[in-house]
Amino acid sequence: MAFLETGSLTFNLVLFAACVLVILGTGTRITRIVDQLADRIRIGEALAGGVLMGAATSLSGSVLSVTAAWNGHPELAVSNALGGIAVQTVFLAIADITYRRANLEHAAASAENMMQTSLLIALLALIALAPLLPDFTLWEIHPITFCLLLLYLYGLGLVKRVRDTPLWRATKTRSTRPDIPEVRNIRLSLPLLLVKFLALMLVLGTSGWLLEHVASGIAEQTGLSETMIGVLLTATSTSLPELVTCLAAVRQGALTLAVGGIIGGNAFDTLFTAASDIAYRDGSIYHAISDTTLAWTVLTLLMSAFLMMGLIRREEQGFARIGFESLAVLLLYALGLVVLLI
């Protein structure tokens, strides 16, 4: 957009803040609707959080990444996707601190959330592997992109199968909060809920499209790298709905939705990279990213592994209301920021 390229830095920063406020407000409203849809169509909070909330709250970020790739900014596209996954994992640790009864990984334990975390780790591993493979493409698309899409669909099927016919169950304790549908939500109008959901998704998508142009302008005007802009600025701002929806779900007692929304949303966010590779017309996007972005991929993979440990270990009460694994996630993210800023 030409007027953003010629506009002042102050104008772009104000417009950036306005987009963030729109994303924040829309993300807040969509939480309750997703919770109601989960009960109304009986798919469970974990799957609803991963697919519906993950897709909705991540839409602004996905549009930003795809637009950046299409406009020839591979670093911004991939760093925005991976930075969003990292910061959203941090948001889960923050939600863990706010939930006072027990550690969130303990209270929201479910086979579905564990399966979604396993899927996330596998998807991130594929992204980390891609730059090490030959720079070979089909129709300017790297084969890893097809693998990401197929693995994601396969993983969703496993999550649903685990919910419908579980062969593993979390031991119930006094702090466990099971996913039980609310009777009043089952009686709500499904068409009306879907219309509200799609309308809010449209707002988020439009905000993400505008935010990409603003972010590119800020990068040019400030001289900051696209990786830094992606990880610190756009990834955090487009991920704010995940923070808001996660904290809102915790307050509502929908703990499985809170954890599933973040983990499933992170798995969905890996598809940003696949979609960006399709949109990028100069070959494999995985071979156009820097070592710094690749390091963030590995760091995010490590953070997800610690999250998986927390879900399996299920420490009921940690130090200062936070489990060891959540603390490790916070420290790893801080380490990544230090490396990025050096």
Automatic annotation (TrEMBL):
Keywords: Membrane, Transmembrane, Transmembrane helix. The keyword Transmembrane applies. The chain crosses the membrane at residues 6-25, 46-70, 76-95, 116-133, 139-159, 193-211, 294-312, 319-341. It is a multi-pass membrane protein. Its main location: membrane. It comes from the Bacteria. Pfam families: Na_Ca_ex. Residues 13-158, 197-340 form the Sodium/calcium exchanger membrane region domain. InterPro entries: K/Na/Ca-exchanger (IPR004481), NaCa_Exmemb (IPR004837), NCX_ion-bd_dom_sf (IPR044880). It is found in: Membrane. PANTHER family: INNER MEMBRANE PROTEIN YRBG, SODIUM/POTASSIUM/CALCIUM EXCHANGER. This is Cation transporter. It comes from Marinobacterium zhoushanense.
